Amino acid sequence: MSFQNPPLYVEGGHHSGVELRGMLQDAARSNQGVGHSGDLKVLAMAAPAGHVRIEAGTCFITGVADPLQGSYWAKAPDETVIDITPTGGVGRSDLIVARVEDPTYEGGRTPDVDVFYPYVIEGVAAGTTQMPAGITGIVLARIDIPAMTAAITNAMIHDLRSIANPRRDRTTIAVFPGAAYAIPAADAKWLTLVGGLAIPSWASAATMLVHVSGYALMVGPSAGWVHAKIGAFDTQQTKYDENWTGSYSRGGLVVASANKQAVPVGIRGTTQEVDLWGYHDAQAGHLQLDQGSVIVVDVEFFEVPE
What we know:
Layout: H1 17-27, E1 33-34, E2 42-44, E3 51-54, E4 57-62, E5 71-76, E6 80-83, E7 92-100, E8 116-121, E9 137-145, E10 157-159, E11 168-175, E12 181-182, E13 188-198, E14 205-218, E15 222-230, E16 233-234, E17 238-242, E18 248-256, E19 261-262, E20 271-280, E21 286-289, E22 294-302
Antiparallel strand pairs: 1-4, 2-3, 3-6, 4-5, 7-8, 7-9, 9-10, 11-22, 12-21, 13-20, 14-18, 14-19, 14-21, 14-22, 15-16, 15-17, 15-20
């Protein structure tokens, strides 16, 4: 029959490793990488030496030795230290990878001893970021080692981890000012946009866009800067320069953070106020938010390696 029985986890059923790995590959959406943002990070020793340490963590690794091999979930419960060969008269780049060598498909390792292990690929091309073809594993880091070097420092280590299934959360809120709010003359809070925004505990990066539509230009020309804050998270400042010579006009602007800007550790897992900040220069005019304005706050949090 065309439907395979029994399905996984039916009482009394018996299932092979390849069936379980196939299920895991589907559950992981065929993605591979570390489990969480801090997992399996490669770091120099506290006192730089001829080895590096890989922090504890988990990962998903998709087999490449056979089309039906499926995916592995693997764990390093403790920190692991691996040796790095010193360089001679020429510098060298090495890849640090987490590798699975399943004896069902390749090699002759012992399943409960050394199938999952750290592996150093020496002498890769400068700038390499991908795993060489034919190796089941994930890249953790590249170490660019200068000539005549025996001690590895963090400055030589380039983090290349990705998260297999990173979490993300997006919030979009429209704000309608109920009164008139003039932009400050010196950099300060202009308007509270959201009284309490929940920051996920796993959020290591974020993007924020604030679209301001229908601000009023009062009195005359005005120039200045506008930015937005979520607690200690601050966007880049956006320049505005309005040269309208009449007494009143309407306009709009967009305030943006850098792409996936780091979220300060201190605000993760907390609730923070979202504020619009700004100031104008010494010209006679100024911007005003009022009942004719609408501000759209668009915040997205990401889980990225760190």
